[in-house]
Task: inverse folding
């Protein structure tokens, strides 16, 4: 499904943190291109800089240096309000803990990104319901998150990520809080979405999950390596 | 420009709905938060209603004195001002009639029933000067004054207290132990600030002077011929008083306007003080709102993180919390206004005091409560809007 048209271009991205007076190089000159329609996994153990990298891709944080282009827009040095707009329009987040707002019903949660676009109520509702339909939860539209199972909550979260039809879906350990059967369902949905043309970036520490993607990169000590899947497979084989 | 404006309006409406929803989700807390504002606003309204009610009452009272009556009071204790001196005022041009008075308090008794009332010794023109009317019988006549007659005219409430619904005319009452024959009863004139204008008795001036063993006059009511010339007449009377008494600090001549001004300035101060102390409780209510909003921000850190990740800008989060505190405070304001109006009504029914509602004060206290919501909402809302989305998302 790859069209060889880059949706994300990262060049020499670095990020440092001050932690207890010590400087931590969370990302050391990372470069990565992601093509439109790609399904890519970023795999790495905790402390590898994986979370930092996800925050960068998700425009939740700004790199110290390097270039970052989404859809040919340079987001590396944008103001935080501009970043908010990019997050709203270009990226659909899927979190490990679903991160639904507990007071809002499923459909209201799905509507959230559209609210921040200033869309009118009726239009918003229609789009949100069709997003819920895609994940097969339209009959639970008026349920509160607490009335839904984990798998259902994650499907609502996916619907929320889809509602704004962003070019990129960014999933951070989407199956981390689910049992293996539900995990499989969620991954199937993600595969389906990829087949429908969505670019998906999957962040995980689980190799089996990472293998769902057609490209796996590995992060280790703030460095990014291609062919992460093979490397992990090798280490698992005891090499 | 247009698009961003529509977006703002849609956002605002949506935010308002979210705020109402979030308040509905926590009714008890919302009510307790609003309580400060409710108490503040309702006490402002009750206090001002009572304050302005008493102002109005005093003004009515002074108005009932007549707009063409001057009051001459002798205040010096070492000057003598007798009936003959008072009669000289009758000759001042522009004066229609005068009524010299002495007054005090006495105990009036009819059999076992007794009452503490104010007594006024005066002459026959008093009725005309003060514009009073008789309910029955007659008023003091010149002959009564000449003869030091022991006769009395009762105020309506004195008559009611001593005789119930019976007719007092022709009956006898004891004034400080001395028997007086009742010759008349006056119509009611109403009351002010708790003292009834009807709990009175009137006796001839000479009789009252004998009762009080004095020969001087306390005050003189002067009716002027022409209301428009009242200030000229006032000057002439002042001149006359100076020639009689010779010490300008020992007497005062006041017009109804003067009295009105004094009374309203006293009441204005009272209303201001009552309103002020109530306004302080409004500010305390605002601090309550700020406190709860801060709690709400920290409770909803995760929600703020989610919203920010999804694309909420700082402004949207700021607006959300600001509108929430404004909804809380203005709702408190509305409830406060309603409660204030009801409490003032209950107050007037149970105590019989006059109240006067002030619509500007109601609007003002509502607007003030809204402002309190904004002022005390800005700090928590700003705090919420500045949260780092990464930190906020990690918050459990």
Result:
């Amino acid at each position: 499904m790859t069209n060889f048209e880059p949706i994300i271009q990262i060049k020499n991205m670095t990020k440092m943190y001050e932690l207890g007076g010590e400087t931590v190089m969370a990302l050391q000159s990372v470069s990565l291109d992601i093509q439109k329609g790609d399904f890519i996994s970023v795999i790495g153990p905790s402390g590898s800089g994986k979370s930092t990298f996800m925050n960068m891709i998700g425009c939740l944080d700004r790199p110290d240096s390097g270039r970052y282009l989404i859809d040919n827009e340079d987001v590396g040095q944008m103001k935080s309000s501009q970043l908010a707009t990019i997050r709203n329009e270009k990226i659909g987040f899927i979190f490990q803990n679903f991160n639904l707002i507990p007071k809002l019903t499923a459909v209201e949660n799905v509507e959230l990104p559209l609210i921040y676009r200033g869309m009118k109520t009726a239009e918003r509702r229609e789009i949100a319901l069709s997003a819920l339909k895609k994940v097969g939860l339209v009959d639970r539209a008026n349920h509160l998150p607490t009335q839904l199972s984990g798998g259902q909550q994650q499907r609502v979260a996916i619907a929320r990520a889809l509602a704004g039809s962003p070019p990129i879906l960014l999933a951070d350990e989407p199956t981390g809080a689910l049992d293996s059967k539900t995990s499989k369902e969620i991954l199937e949905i993600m595969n389906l979405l990829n087949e429908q043309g969505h670019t998906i970036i999957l962040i995980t520490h689980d190799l089996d999950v990472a293998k769902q993607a057609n490209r796996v990169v590995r992060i280790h000590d703030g460095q990014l390596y291609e062919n992460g899947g093979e490397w992990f497979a090798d280490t698992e084989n005891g090499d | 420009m247009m698009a961003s404006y529509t977006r703002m309006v849609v956002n605002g409406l949506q935010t308002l709905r979210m705020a109402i929803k979030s308040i509905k989700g926590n009714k008890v807390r919302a009510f307790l938060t609003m309580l400060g504002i409710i108490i503040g606003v309702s006490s402002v309204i009750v206090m001002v209603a009572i304050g302005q009610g008493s102002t109005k009452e005093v003004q009515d009272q002074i108005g009932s004195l007549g707009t063409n009556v001057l009051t001459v009071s002798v205040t010096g204790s070492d000057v003598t001002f007798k009936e003959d001196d008072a009669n000289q005022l009758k000759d001042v041009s522009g004066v229609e009639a005068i009524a010299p008075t002495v007054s005090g308090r006495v105990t009036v008794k009819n059999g076992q029933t007794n009452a503490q009332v104010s007594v006024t010794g005066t002459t026959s023109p008093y009725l005309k000067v003060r514009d009073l009317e008789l309910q029955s019988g007659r008023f003091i006549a010149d002959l009564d004054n000449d003869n030091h007659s022991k006769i009395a005219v009762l105020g309506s409430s004195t008559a009611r207290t001593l005789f119930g619904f019976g007719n007092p005319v022709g009956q006898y009452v004891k004034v400080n132990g001395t028997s007086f024959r009742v010759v008349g009863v006056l119509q009611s004139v109403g009351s002010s600030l708790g003292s009834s204008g009807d709990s009175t008795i009137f006796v001839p001036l000479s009789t009252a002077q004998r009762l009080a063993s004095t020969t001087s006059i306390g005050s003189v009511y002067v009716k002027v011929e022409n209301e428009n010339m009242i200030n000229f007449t006032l000057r002439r009377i002042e001149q006359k008083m100076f020639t009689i008494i010779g010490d300008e600090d020992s007497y005062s001549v006041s017009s109804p306007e003067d009295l009105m001004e004094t009374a309203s300035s006293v009441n204005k101060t009272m209303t201001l003080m009552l309103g002020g102390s109530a306004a302080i409780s409004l500010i305390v209510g605002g601090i309550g709102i700020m406190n709860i909003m801060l709690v709400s921000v920290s409770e909803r850190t995760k929600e703020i993180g989610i919203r920010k990740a999804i694309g909420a800008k700082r402004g949207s989060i700021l607006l959300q919390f600001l509108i929430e505190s404004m909804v809380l405070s203005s709702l408190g304001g509305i409830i406060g206004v309603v409660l204030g109006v009801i409490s003032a009504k209950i107050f007037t029914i149970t105590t019989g005091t006059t109240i006067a509602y002030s619509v500007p004060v109601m609007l003002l206290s509502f607007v003030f409560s809204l402002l309190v919501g904004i002022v005390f909402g800005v700090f928590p809302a700003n705090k919420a809007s500045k949260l780092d989305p990464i930190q906020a998302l990690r918050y459990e």
